[in-house]
Amino acid sequence: MQSRDWSQQPPFIYPDYKSSLRRGPTKPLIELQPLYQNHQESIAGELLGSLLNRYQTGELDHDLTRNARDQGEPIGERIVVSGQVLDDRGKPVAGALVEIWQANSCGRYIHKVDQHDAPVDPNFLGAGRVVTDNDGYYRFYTIKPGAYPWGNHPNAWRPQHIHFSVTGSNIATRLVTQMYFPGDPLLDLDPIFESVPKQARPRLVSFFDLSITEPDFALGYRFDIVLRGASATPTDNHS
Fold this sequence. Notes:
The protein is mostly beta strands. The protein has a single domain, classed as Protocatechuate 3,4-Dioxygenase, subunit A (Sandwich), CATH 2.60.130. The chain contains 4 helices and 11 strands. Strands 1, 4, 9, 10 and 11 form a 5-stranded mixed beta sheet that branches. A hairpin with a 7-residue loop joins strand 5 and strand 6.
């Protein structure tokens, strides 16, 4: 089994992404094996304890176009986002918890910290979750998110994106990343995207897939997630 190829991952501290200077870790990662050797089994146990029996998803958790309806349908372009979660050998990972969160079609999150001067959609929560099937597939129905200003530098705008979290059998196996859309002109101007080594950036960009597209309903985008190895999906180290 291959370990993560750190040369393909963004650094924890990237000066152009200004908040990473405050949030990036300055101490080395904690190795789990020494915790056992030093008889700190309780700490290691909390990190490695099984979560598989705790994953509970509701009927509409995967459908962001319906899971928060209050007065009607959410506004914006409906899309389907689907893909496979794979290990470093290309084998599907079944039973992984995939969670997403995103801005609405106007580029605003339902969060008190987000004070962007854009409408809040009362019918769109912007969060969902699903467990991968036996072949490692997940599928979400959602609204294409809008771009939004973020104050990192003058006239800074984040590209359209969806945040992803993938958790395996325990919290130590969690991967957090972002999915972008093809052809977005803001990608080359975004310090978060640019912090990823150039050869690995395409792994963060979904692609249009007619086989996922549902006739007369929504365009489909495919986004596969590779957990380890040289082809691993770059992580969002700054979240």
